[in-house]
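Methods — Computational structure assignment.
A single polypeptide chain was analysed. Its primary sequence is given first, followed by the predicted tertiary structure written as structure tokens.
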Amino acid sequence: MRFVIRLPDNIDQTIENALERARLVPGFLVDNEARFLGTLAACTPAQGAIVEIGSFKGKSTVMLASVAAKYGQGPVVAIDPHEGLSYLDIEMPDQDPTFDEFLGSIKSAGVEEHVEVRRALSCDVGKDWNRPIRLLWIDGDHSYRGCKEDFDLFSPYLADGAVVALHDSLNGFEGPIRVVIEEILRSDRFGPSGFVHSIAWSQFRPTDGVRFRKLRRRLERRASNLLPFVGQDAPLRGLRRMAFKLNRWRVPHKLVAPAQWTALLSSINSE
């Protein structure tokens, strides 16, 4: 299947306007990651919900909902128990609940009507999920077990042409990079794929994903060099950290402009 995508009107300005709102929210997205999320929200050629797993204080929620609302691409289903981020890192202390700050963020940004708030664990929401998904944004539990569970529960509902994106895939966590390599880059169910900063993304193409096998394998070879550095209890330090950064640098991960991204999705193979 070939996807011909027309860029929405004023896409660049819409993304920048959304970024101004998102910058006011504490969080871990850098600007180019937020810009790319805006591209995904506006240009993903599929029907269904935008599902966000891991909202924290609402930075990515505001970005996604601002752009989706502009082009009638909502809602954003924001799933998070809001119990802090201690599961991300063995050295991260327990934190206070973030729910009130999250609600304040989406209200201040004027997008609360475009967000379906689900204060719950993603595993609990996923067990009863039955709606098509156009964009699956995974930024929750970064352990391999947690990340794979999120992918396994929600990916069966990806609409044809939908996009799945995982945050922190190049930041030393085991879950995102292993799921990307094992479940996406090695699967002919997925087509165009890539990295933007630490976000890994791929389009769900169950009927012609095989056409993009060469592209995915090139990415897999480079990304697989990161696997020896993740999945250990100790954080990356010293020479191991330097080696990890060198291998990460070898994975293409520059920002892709909306026109470039839509052209990639409109192609029929990886050449």
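Note: The chain has a mean pLDDT of 93.
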